[in-house]
Design a protein that fits this description.
Elements lengths: L1 E3 L2 E8 L2 E7 L5 H8 L18 E4 L2 E4 L12 E3 L9 H8 L9 H14 L6 H8 L9 H13 L5
Parallel strand pairs: 2-6
Antiparallel strand pairs: 1-2, 2-3, 4-5, 4-6
The structure holds FE2/S2 (inorganic) cluster (FES) (2 copies).
């Protein structure tokens, strides 16, 4: 980390690319992803850790990017919804299950479900699925359709 005009330059890996960005110590990972790296898939919602619209993966685990300082991401691997490339099983599963309406929460749910599948290659028990999903909120679609999407995701084979 290098001091530079009141900012620090951090190096991290985002969606497989090594990047360096100059950030203020107080900058949130969410804002850096959106405003400096142009990755607007993670959405600002409550910015308080409650809604999950900002969820990305850090070193394979879902994190709420509004609760992570950019400097805390130094040296880590970040995966955003853009990094799923449009072809991940979870993305097709959400389409097949009609598991969204306005879509504002969807990228967050996609990242949580994708992370769940990487940690549980086989469909886990219902209470485990519920524990993973409870970190995120949707204000307009049915949670039942999101649960259905999880089942469909597990019917698909290739995990990235
Ligand atoms: S914006 Fe991050 S949890 Fe709501
Ligand atoms: S689809 Fe609208 S908030 Fe979830």
């Amino acid at each position: 980390m290098v001091n530079y005009a009141g900012k620090v330059v951090i190096a991290l890996n985002v969606n497989g690319d090594n990047v360096e960005v100059a950030v203020r110590p107080s900058d949130l990972l969410l804002d850096v992803l959106r405003e400096q790296l142009g990755l607007t898939g993670a959405k600002p919602g409550c910015k308080n850790g409650d809604c999950g619209t900002c969820t990305v993966m850090m070193d394979g685990w879902p994190v709420k990017a509004c609760l992570v300082l950019a400097v805390e991401a130094e040296g880590h691997e970040i995966l955003t919804v853009e990094g799923l490339g449009g072809t991940a099983p979870v993305q097709q599963a959400f389409v097949d299950a009609n598991a969204f309406q306005c879509g504002y929460c969807t990228s967050g749910f996609l990242m949580v479900c994708h992370a769940m599948q990487t940690h549980y290659p086989l469909l886990p028990e219902e209470h485990v699925v519920e524990e993973w999903l409870e970190s995120n909120l949707c204000r307009c679609t049915s949670y039942q359709e999101i649960r259905f999407a999880v089942q469909k995701m597990y019917e698909k084979k290739d995990i990235r």
